[in-house]
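Translate sequence into structure tokens.
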Amino acid sequence: MKKLFACFALLLGFLNLAHAASDNPADLIRDTSRQALDLLRKDDGKNSAKVREQLITMVTPKFDFQRMTALAVGKDWRAASPTQKEQLAREFQTLLVNTYSATMTRFKNAQIEVKPNVQLNNDGREAVVKSEVTLPGAADKKPINVDYTLYKTPQGWKVYNVTVEGGSLVTIYRNQFGEQVRKNGIDGLVKSLQEKNGSAKSA
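Result follows.
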């Protein structure tokens, strides 16, 4: 779980630091990752908040948090009202961004190798980009396999899932969210996310 969050944190920075106008999602990840790491490495402990703010500001345009939330909630998404869907998407986005901001600066010395062969699906409208990430301090220096799932929009490629060593971010949350909905309903899930985000804000 920690590895998945670490790689997700890196991905958020990788995809949002440059406005690379590439039609190839692998090029997008490869080119912008270099610039993201350059910015992260400027963090000397005195400007951490500024670095986090710069990266977070660039996160949302490259991710479809609504689609991520729908996939994470799963079948219960269809039963949610428009207001509940809006609340869920907002709180889930906040949760992911909080996770990102809390972990990203710890991995500024990571190494990433993006594989050139992109797997295209759905008549080229969806893509899976494979990569290997080596995190600093890893005892065996064994690369972590990270797959990024994107889809093409008029505004460019957007990410809606990340899979680390076979563990899907969306699937992990779907298991958690499903249990929460069974116990307390959609409103209970919204409340649970709000409480988590509130705790992170006050920490």
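Note: The chain has one domain: 2-202.
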